[in-house]
Amino acid sequence: MLLACSFTGWLPRKAGMKLTTMLALGSMAVSGIFIYIASNYAAISVSYFLMYAGNGILEIGLALPAARIFVKNTGTMMNLAHFFYGLSSMIVPMLAASLMGVSLFGSELGWLGMYALMLALSVLPILPAILAKFPTEERKQEERISLKQYDVKDPIAWIIIAVLSHGVISELAVGGWLVNFLEKAYGWSNEASARMLSAFYHCFMLARLFLGPVTDKIGYTKSLIYLSAASGLCSVAAIIVGDPGAILFTLAGVGFAPVYPTVMALLVRRYKNNADTAITFTVTLMGIASVIGNFAIERSLTY
């Protein structure tokens, strides 16, 4: 995914946004077929590599046209777009789990068949992508900068990366480890822990639906400061209070949720002429930081 993020910035320039979007979705659909027919660990690894390569291209490939389309109320529209991402993240896993026991052609679908079926749905967005008309790029080629020309010495660029990285790491930490933490630290049942995680994602999803206009009104920088502070205080307070304060982990999702789309809106506004390069640089380094951060969290939970 990180490898795909690193080159997707220039891919739309060479192949166009329409072909880039089709490539991302198509590779994910094909990976589902490969996962289904995989017979050993090497084959499943290659299939997953293809799937996440497509996911990485899609990560950047959708952000770039959004940067050109959402020229007004950018924070609202970015948050709204990511709201649907969160909505599908809640619905699709439940749908996938229910499909695994379905009988098809005389045998149970299983997790391999479920992957193939769910990833085959990636074909559906290709159809409107073929008919879509993406905004044309009117800037002269010499006005654009490549990833190599990007001002990596700009302290603001690194502050944005740090804010985004910490936000995503915190989001993934709660999403990935909350159930484990509640079970091991507080002795909660699996069902109760799962309900708390579900509540976290509900707060997460609704925050992106309703707080987008707030970010446009008070400004993206102030929004990131207030939201980060709120989520940080909730997380720290939840740990200090202990079992009775576990609900604060859920409320922290309200602060985590708008961070990613608001940073995207900030990049669009700050780097109007080179938003594609800025987004590629920021998201790639954020991905590296999130891998390191989640590895550190995993290691800390083993002690």
Describe this structure in words.
The chain has 303 residues and is mainly α. The chain has helices at residues 2-7, 11-15, 17-37, 41-69, 74-99, 110-120, 126-131, 155-186, 190-210, 212-218, 220-241, 247-256, 259-270, 275-301, and strands at residues 103-104, 107-108. It folds into two domains: 2-136, no CATH class; 155-301, Growth Hormone, Chain: A (Up-down Bundle), CATH 1.20.1250. Helix 5 packs antiparallel against helix 9, helix 5 packs antiparallel against helix 13 and helix 8 runs parallel beside helix 14. The two termini are 29 Å apart. The relative contact order is 0.14.
List the helices and strands and how they pair.
Elements: H1 2-7, H2 11-15, H3 17-37, H4 41-69, H5 74-99, E1 103-104, E2 107-108, H6 110-120, H7 126-131, H8 155-186, H9 190-210, H10 212-218, H11 220-241, H12 247-256, H13 259-270, H14 275-301
Antiparallel strand pairs: 1-2
- Structural shape: globular
**Mean pLDDT, rounded to whole units?**
82
Secondary-structure class: mainly alpha
CATH class of the largest domain: Mainly Alpha
Number of distinct helices: 14
Q: In CATH terms, what is the fold-level topology of the largest domain? A: Growth Hormone, Chain: A
Q: Per DSSP, what share of the residues sits in E-state strands of 2 or more residues?
A: under 5%
Radius of gyration: 20 Å
Largest sheet: 2 strands, antiparallel
Residue share in helix: over 70%
The name of the CATH architecture of the largest domain is Up-down Bundle
The low-confidence runs, each spanning 5 or more residues with pLDDT under 50, are: none
User: Which oligomerization state do the chains in this entry correspond to?
Assistant: single chain
- The name of the CATH superfamily of the largest domain reads MFS general substrate transporter like domains
Distance between the termini: 29 Å
How many domains make up the coordinates? 2
SSE order, one letter for each helix or strand: HHHHHEEHHHHHHHHH
